[in-house]
Amino acid sequence: MRHTKYLLFILAATLLSAAAYADDVTFHASAPAQVVVGTPFQLSYTVNQRGKDFRAPEIDGFDVLAGPYTSQSSSTQFINGKRTSSFQLTYTYTLMAQREGSFTIPPASITVGHESYNSNGLKITVLPPDEQPQTGGNTSQQAGQASARQGNPSQPTGSDKDIFVRTLVSKTKVYEQECIVLSYKLYTLVDVAQLTNNTKIPEFSGFVKQELDLGQVQTNLEHYDGRNYQTAVIYQTLLYPQHSGDIKIEPAAFEAIVRVRNRSQVRSIFDDFFDTYSNVSRQLGAPGVTVHVSALPSGRPAGFSGGVGQLKLNSSISQTELQTNEAVTLKIDISGTGNLKMLKTPQVEWPEGFEAYDPKVQNNFKTSAGGMSGSKSIEYLAIPRASGTYTIPSVQYSYFDPQSGTYKSLSTPEYTLTIAKGEGAAETVVQNYVDKENIKQLGQDIRHIYTGELEEAQPDKVKFGTLAFWLCYLIPLLIALTCFIILRKYFKDNADLSRSRYRKAGKVAQKRLKTARAMLAKNDRAQFYEEIERAVLTYLSDRLSIPTAELNKDNIDQLLRSRKVDERNIQQLHDLLSRTEFARYAPAQSDHDMQDVYNETADILSNLNI
Hints:
Blueprint: H1 2-24, E1 27-30, E2 34-36, E3 40-47, E4 52-55, E5 62-79, E6 82-97, E7 101-105, E8 109-112, E9 115-118, E10 122-127, H2 139-151, E11 163-169, E12 173-175, E13 180-188, E14 191-195, E15 207-211, E16 220-224, E17 227-241, E18 245-249, E19 252-261, E20 277-286, E21 289-294, E22 304-317, E23 321-323, E24 328-338, E25 354-356, E26 360-368, E27 371-384, E28 388-392, E29 396-401, E30 406-411, E31 415-420, E32 426-430, E33 439-443, H3 467-494, H4 497-522, H5 525-544, H6 553-562, H7 567-583, H8 591-607
Parallel strand pairs: 2-10, 12-21, 22-29, 23-31
Antiparallel strand pairs: 1-3, 3-6, 4-8, 5-6, 7-10, 8-9, 11-13, 13-17, 14-19, 15-17, 16-17, 18-21, 19-20, 22-24, 24-27, 25-27, 26-27, 28-31, 29-30, 32-33
Helix pairs in contact: 4-5, 4-8, 5-7, 5-8, 6-7, 7-8
């Protein structure tokens, strides 16, 4: 019995040990991502447990100069009375590439305990060696300089070819609103201590920009113009052109602190061991570039709202059979790549008898060196107030695809709703749907009929011929006559709907501006610029007698010129609309800028003589 317990204990300990190994073992391969032909480099395999039977893969395209060299290290720490230990076993090879190209090193394998583990594979790009200079002179000295440029980039030659910045754009020929990725890339053969904040980035006039967060700067080896440079992207942004034509991006300027070896006369072979270095400031200029922007083709389809890229449209509905006063939600998802922040919310035409609420919009966008991608989710809520069968029409949404150079249209399916009459009298209350609060049903109690005896009221009697008698007839007559005159004037003024809207345009605009000022006080930028845009467009729609949906910058300018509005006011209005349209998606501005926009809007609306 005792031997049986002992064997069970050993078996359990073995299983626990194997489980611990299985949970904690990591086996990792590492090597440079780029190497140069003829330059040795190291390939390492590291495991954090004691292992055996290490098997390296077949390495094609590389000469194995040495290895594997085995090294191991271990450490033990006591933190807050808790003992922690670590172990590391490393196998190192010294390799040298035979030819340039892209090569893949398969995973290696090792056995830890009773389990076999595989490392990760590696992809290595092999670059050609530096081109040898064509001038005469000491050949060994030239080879030494070339070797220094490959293996020890901290020895500059002093020319501008040792360190410079290139301006790289993903495309130089694009359409309006098509995304461009602009990068400033540093190339260096010298040791760069740091890049200072003394940087001059152009304004990118004519573009809407979205800067990219590069995080920690990553360096790579790149063969350029016959030499192998250490490179790093030091600035990157997405640009969206706002008008057609050739748009010039001005040059940029950077400052780098370079570690330079002090040159001195060599007196003995030991002088090389006592070299000194100095930090020198280098001014680096990145050249400008011109981008040719083509206008979007004519013949824009219905439902086009400025989207440029590759988009998809999906929709769903919460239910198709419901009762009156019961909420229904239609969800539309627009996903893909492109100028997603410029996309406008599509409109849903709800059937007659539905009470609709403002849609709830949720954006999930990601920016990267490949552009902007993500999705825009819109939820529309409505409540039917009458029973019957209704159809929600298809929602049409169009965009421009720059890859094919054509417009493409998307649409949602039609939804047929069957509405049954709800039981009992109930009132549906929607509270702050935009803030995602719940919809509540509030029941109404039935007032019971009073069955007791009622006291008969005794009316006061008015004597014939008295003042009170005549006032009882004259006052209602005067009230009726006054109401008749007021209503007659009201019906006359409102018979012409466009004239009524024209007359009330100023009051409606002031109401919008009042709401915008409240958003300014709350520092709600998105809602503030939306109210400013609504105030301007609603005012123009009422004054010019044209639906808001048909208003755009071009026909606004034409209509105002036909009304002989001052050209300066037209240009101010045009600039204001452009500013408010994209301010919601630009980097955050100060409250002072928002106050200037508010004051400018009020001045423009007051100065427009339409």
